[in-house]
Records
---
Amino acid sequence: MATRAAALAAVACAAGLVAATEARPAGLRSVDVWFVRDGALVSVERRAGSISRAVDLLLAGPTARERRRGLRSAVPKGTRVHAVTVRQRVVVVDLASRFAAGTEASGLRARIGQLVKTVAGIPGVRGVRVLVEGGVPVGLFPGYDLRRPLGLGAVKTDERPGLREVQELLRDLGFLGAGGVTGRLDDRTAVAVLGFQKWAQLPRTGVLDASTSRALLRATRPLPATLAAGRRVEVLLDRQLALLVDGGRVLRAVHISTGAYNRTPAGSFRVFRKERMSWSVPFSVWMPWASYFVGGIAFHEYPIVPAYPASHGCIRVNRYDAPMLYEFATSGTPVQVLWSA
Amino acid sequence: MVCVKPLLLPVALLAVAGVAHVAAASPAPPRPDVLVVALDLSGRPFQAGAVRGREVVYATGFEPELARALARRLSIDTVRFVYVPRERLLRRGPKPWSLALARLQPGSTASLRFSAPYLEADQAVVLRRGLPRPRRLAALRRLQLCAERGSRGAAVIASRIRPSLRPLLVRDAATLVRRVQTGACDATLVEAPLVGSFVAGRRDRLGPVAGRVDTRAGYAVALEPGSRLRARVDTALRRLRADGTLARLRRGWLGADPNRIPVLR
C-alpha cells in the first residue's frame, strides 16, 4: 500500500501536479482588496506579503472606518479558508462551505467578484480557481462557471453589465441595429449610448459610465409620443431623437441633431421627396440619404451629429442609422415633429 | 482436517442464524445504511453543490434538503450525494444510486420508475411592465411569448398555449429577463415553484405574475426499475406532506406557494 502511494506521489510530482503551499510573489508588499459599495466593487489598499494573507484580509472584511464609508463585504462573516495554492500561476483558493451560504444571487455573484478581483489583481497571477470544501462548485454561484479558472475579465457585477450585454440591451431597446452587437467598444456603440442617454435624460456624453449602465439595466423600450396606427417618424426636439414607429411600437430610436435656434419647425408633415445623394445649394454640401418632409428640410446623413440642436434646420442623422431611416421613411410616411415626448 | 471440524459447526450455526434473522425481518427489504442520492446540480434554489470526482462534497437547495428529510423518514442515518449529469440519469444502464432528485417528471423516461410527485410542475406567466393582465389562457395567444430554449416553459407554450406569434426562445434566464424588461417579449413562462425567486430583486424590471398554466404534472423521485424503496419513498413523501415538512422546505427554498397563483384557464 505504501509502495502504491509512493508511486502515485512520484507520478504526481513528475506531472507537475504538486502545488506550492504558499505563494509569495517577489516584491509583494501591498494588495488591492475588493469590497462592495452601492452594488459596485471598490478596492482598498492593504499591506500583504503573500496571496494567502490577501485572501485572509478579504475574508476579514472592511474595517470599522471603511464600513462608515459605506463599504461592505458580500463574503459571509466567519468564512474560513482551507488552503491557498498556486499551480502554473493559477491560484487555487479552497474555502469552507460558508462561502456559498445564502440564496441571494447578487450577493453570491459579488463575493466571487471580490475574491477574483483581489487575487487575480496580484501581479503575476493568471487566474483564480475557486473550490468549496475541496470540490468544484456547480450551480452555487449564478452566472459563473467555476470549472475553469477565472481572470479579471470574467468578473460580473449587477450594476455594471459586460459590453456585449450592454450592446444587447441597446439593441433590444431600439437604440442599436442588430449588427451592432460586436462585443467591441466602437463608435457605433457610443452613438447608441448617446441616443439612450438622451432618452433617459442622462448627461449626453456617449460614454458608458456607471449611471448609464445602471439606467440601462432598468430601462424599458421607448414608447411613441402619440397614438396612431401605421408607420411614422416622431421627432422629439427636447430629446434630439427620432422614433421610428410602426403599429404603435417603437422599432428604433435614432440619435439626431435638429436645427439650432428652433429652425426645425414643429408640426405634422409627410415625406414628399427622397434623394440618395442630395446637393444643398445654399450650403454647398452633399447630403446622403435625404428624405424631405417640409420645404427644404430633410432627414440626411451628416458626419457631425452633436448631442444638441446644431443644423440649419435639417435633421442630421448619424451615419450608422441614416440608410435605415431612409429605407423606413418611404414617400408619404407621416413625420411628426414634437417639442417633447 | 481434524483441526477444521470444530470450526465448521459455529460457522454453520451463524449462517443459519443470519438467514433466520433476514427471514424474521421479511417481507420488508433490508435497510441500507447509506442512502445514495443522485443530483444533477441544475442550480439554485433547487440544487447546487461542490463536486470532487463524482462525489458531491457539499450540497444545498430544496432537493438535497428533501433527500435528507426522506432519509430521516426512511430511518437511514447517512445520505451520500453523487453528481450524475441529467442525460446520464435518463440513460438506460446500471444505477449506482438509490434514488435521484433532479426535477424529473414521471413518464419522462422508460429507464426509471417514479414516486408520487413532491412538487407541481406548473408554469407561471410573468408579464412585462405596463401590459394589461390577461385573465384567460386564450389571451396569451395574442402576446409575444418568450422562454428559455429547451425549457419546460417552451414546451408548454408550444403544446398548451399555441400562440399566434412565434415564441422567442433565448439562451438563458438573464437574456429572458432582458427581453421582458425591454419589451421585446410581452410575457415569459417560468417554473411556478421558482417564480418567487425569479421576480425577487427584479421588481423594477418585470411586470406582475399574471397567473399559472396548470400542466397537470409534477416532479417525482426517480428510482431504478424494480427498486424496493419505491413504496417506502411514497409513504415517506405522504408523511412529509402531512406533517408540513414539504411545505416548510418549499417556503424556505423556493419562496411563496405557487398554488396561490391563480390558474389561467
---
Amino acid sequence: MAYGPHTGGDRARMLDALGISTVDALFDDIPAAVRATGLDLPPALTELELMARLRGLAGRNRVDLASFIGAGAYRHHAPPVVDQVLLRGEFYTAYTPYQPEVSQGTLQTVYEYQSLIAELTGLDVVSASHYDGAAATAEAALMTCRGARRGRVLLSRGVHRHYRETLATYFAGGSLAFDEVPLLADGPAAGTTDLAALERLLADRDQPVAGVIAAQPNVLGLLEPMAEIGRLGHAAGALFAAVVEPVSLGVLAPPGAYGADIAAGEGQPLGLPLAFGGPYLGILACRDALVRQIPGRLVGMTTDTEGRRAYVMTMRAREQDIRRERAASNICSNQALCALASAVWLAALGPGGLRDVAATGAARAAELEAALAAAGAPRLHPGPYLNEFAVRVPDAAAVHRRLLDHGVLAGIPTAELEPGDPALADGLLVCATELTTSDEIELFAFALREELLAGMGTLPGAGPPGGAALPALGSDAMEARP
Amino acid sequence: MSVTGERLQPSLFERSRPGRNRPRLPAAPADALDRIPAEALRATPPALPEVNEATLVRHYLNLSQLNWSVDGGFYPLGSCTMKFNPKVNEWAVRLPGLADLHPFAPDETAQGTLAILWELQRLLAEIGGMDAVTLQPAAGAQGELTGILVVRAYHRSRGDTERSEILVPDSAHGTNPATASMAGFRTVNIPSAADGGVDLDAFRAAAGPRTAGVMITNPSTLGLFEARIVELVDLVHAAGGLVYMDGANMNAVLGHFRPGAAGIDAMHFNVHKTFSTPHGGGGPGAGPVAVRAGLAPFLPGPLVVREADGRFRLERPGERPASIGRVRSFAGSVGVLVRAWAYIRAHGADGLREVSEDAVLAANYVRQRLRGTYDVPYDRPCMHEFVAAAATLRRETGVRTLDVAKRLIDKGFHPPTIYFPLIVEEAMLIEPTETESLETLDAFADALLEIAAEARTEPALVTGAPHTAPVRRLDEATAARQPNLRWRVAPQGGAGRGVAPARAPGV
C-alpha cells in the first residue's frame, strides 16, 4: 500500500517533462555492479492485515499484571488532554522550527517547556530536550569537563546503571575519564553514596575533578545527602550535577536549592507512556553561568520587526550544523514532542496536582513497605526513600518469576539491576505511584508470603485475603503464543 | 481567536490564576511526607501555572495553528524527508499492549514488542544489505556516534591504535564532523569534485595508516548519488579504513541500492525520514545502525535475539563482551521503531522501491521546472532532492535565497532547507518527497518562478517577506545577545518578567 498520490498518468507526465521513458534512467548514477534489483521482504500488508497483526502482537505483551516496577521508568496517570494535544498534526508532523515565522507554535511550547523545567529544577537554563535520561547525564558529565576545564568526572553508583554505561560509552572516544563512587554497604546510610570515598577520590591532586554526579532519589530509591555531596565537590573546584526524577521534584528539594550546577534526568514520568523504553525525554538544565556549555537547542523570546513578542531558536553557534567538528555535541534531532507532552502534563496537573502525585506515591509506597515487611520481606536499607525501595528476598530472581504467575510484576531483582554487587544479591526493587491500589498491594504481599513460605519448604497457608482482586492468571493472548 | 483576530498567544503563565486548576486527582494523605527528612523536601512548591482544562486545550490548539506541518501543507525541506506520516502508525503505538509495557518487563511478558523489534532488525538488515542491526540509537546523530565508536572498537580489537582520523567530505551533514570529534577522532575535511561527487584523488591523498574510516552521505547532501562509490570503498579499504554511510538520504534508493552489498561497512537509518515516523517538531526520531558481520560483535546492546524455540529475548549484560556498550537507556525509542516497522510492512519490497522512484521522479520534475530561472548546479539527474540556488538572482536583483524562502511562506509553502549544503552559494536544498501530488509540485514550482519575477519587478515585496505569517522576521541578534530562555514568575503571582519589551498578545 502506498501513501503517495501519483497515478500512472501523473508519472507519465513527469517522465514526459524530463524527456525519459522510464524512471530507471534516473538511477543510472548507481554503478551497475551495485545496483539492486529488489528486496527480499515479506509481502505488503493491507491496512486491515496490518492492524490485525499489530493487535495480535500487542496482545502478546502482558500489561495486565499488578506492576510494582520502576527502576528508571514510572507509570503515572496521564490526563487524556495530553494525548489529545499530541495528536494535533500541526505539532507532530512539524519539523524543527528553523523557519520561526511559521513555527511559533512549536517555539512557544518549547520555551514554555524550558520555563516549566526551570521552575521544577530551580535552575535557569533548560535545553529544548535530549534523547533520554542516560544521554542527558552523559552530556551533563561532558558539560562539567568543558565548564571546569578538567578531564575527570566522579559518578556515584547510585546513578542508574544504564546511565553509567552510557556515560562510559560517550567517554570512550576522548581523553576524558571517570571513576565510580561506591555506595555504602551497611550502616544507617547503606545504599547511598559513600562520602568518605568521594572525599578520597576528590583529594587526588594529580587528577583534578571536573564534576561530581549523584542521583536524587538514587537508583535504589534512597534519598542522598545532595547538599553535602555538592559541598564536597565544590570545595575541590568541581561542578555538581544532580540526576533527578522530575515527578519527585513536586515535593523534593530542587537541584538549584542544594547547590547543583547542572540537573539531568529522565522526563518519561511526566506523562509519557512506558512503551518498552522510549521515546523518552532527556532533561538537561544548568545555571546561567554554564549557558555556553549546554548542548542542544535553546529557544529564546524576542520580537519581530513590528515589536510583537515572538520566539526563536537561539545561541545556535554552539550547534553542529554551524560549528561542525568544534560543536558542543553532535545532537540534532531531539525529543521535542516528548517535551511538549511533559509540558502539557505539568500544566494539566498544576503545582497542587504534581504535589499530590508525588506525595500519593510516597504514601502508597509506605503502605507497600508495611505489607511486604509483614509478608517476610523487610527493607534492604534503613534510610529514607520517596516511593521506591528495595526489600530483602532470598532467591529473588526465582521468586520474581513465580510471582508473574500470581499476576504480579514484583519490581526488578536488584541483582538484575546491579549485577555483581554482593550487597544487592538478594533483593527486589519495588515502587508505588498514585496508580498503585491497595488491592494490588494486598495481592503482592499475599503472593510473596506464599512464595517465601514455599521457598522455606512450608506449604502455603490459606487462600487470598478477602477483597483482593486477583487478575486472571493467563489470557487468550498468552495461549495464542506459538 | 486564531482564525480571525490576534493569532499570537499569551504564555501559559499569563493564563494562570491562583485556584484556577482545581485538583482532579485524589488528594494525598496529609502525613504522606512526614517520614521524609525536612532537608530533603522543597520549601516552596514550583511555580507551575494553574489553568483549567478548557484553557489548556485552547492554549495548545491555538498554538498548534501557528505551526506549519506536513498535515497542513507542502514541506520541501531538503535532507529532512518530510513525507506524510501514516495515521495507522499513530493508532498502533497507542495500543495499550504496546504503550503500557515497562522497559524492564521480563522477556516472557514482552513477546509482542520483542517480535516487532526482532523483525525490524531483520527488515533493516535486508534493506541495507547488512548483517546485523542495533535499534538502540535515539536519533541519526546518535547512530553516527554508535557507528564511529564501532569503527574505533574494530580497529582496537586488532591492536590497530594509530588510526586517529576520520575523512569527511565537505558536503557532509554537520553532525558527521561533530560526531567524529565526540568519538575522539580528528576530522579531515575533503573537498568535493567539480561534478559534486567525491574527489577520489583527494581521498587517495588523505587516506593512509592514520585513517580510521570515512563518513560518506550517499546520496550526498547535493542530492547526487556517489557514482564513484565502489572506487571510494576500495580505496578506503586498501588503506585499512572502514566506510560509514550516513543513511539520511535512503529515501532515494530503497530497493535500488543496498549499501552493504557495495562494501559499505556500517550505516544508520533515519527512520523519521525514510520510514515516515513523525518529526514531532524536532523529534523524537530513531537512528538504527546496520553493520556487516565483522562489526556485529561491537554493536551496542541489547539486541533482540530469537531462541531456537521461537521465543524472543533481549541480550543479557555482558553477552557480547566486545560491545561498545550502551548509547542510551533500555532498548531504544520503541514507539518510533514500531511506526517504522508498520511502514515497512505496509509497503513490502515493491512498495518501498516505488516510494524511492516516486521521490526521485518528483525531485527531478521540480528541478526541471526551475531550470533557467534558478541556478541548478551539477547538470545530471538528481536523486530525491536537488540543490537550486539564487546566486545569479542575487547578483542581478539583490534578492537573496533567504528572501526567496520567506516569500514562499506568503505563497503557502514552507521554505526548502537554505544555505545548506555549505559548498553551494545561496543554496536551496529542495526535497519534495513521494507523497506530494503533481498539482502541489506544479504550484510550488510556479510560486518559485513568480518570486523570481517579483525579484525583478517588486524586490521590496520579496525582501520584506513574509507578509502573511503570524509574525514578521525576528530579531535574532538580540535573542542571542540578551538571551531570554525562560519565563520568570513574579513572586506574588503578578505579571511575570521575561515579557521583555515585547508586545504581549491579549489573554
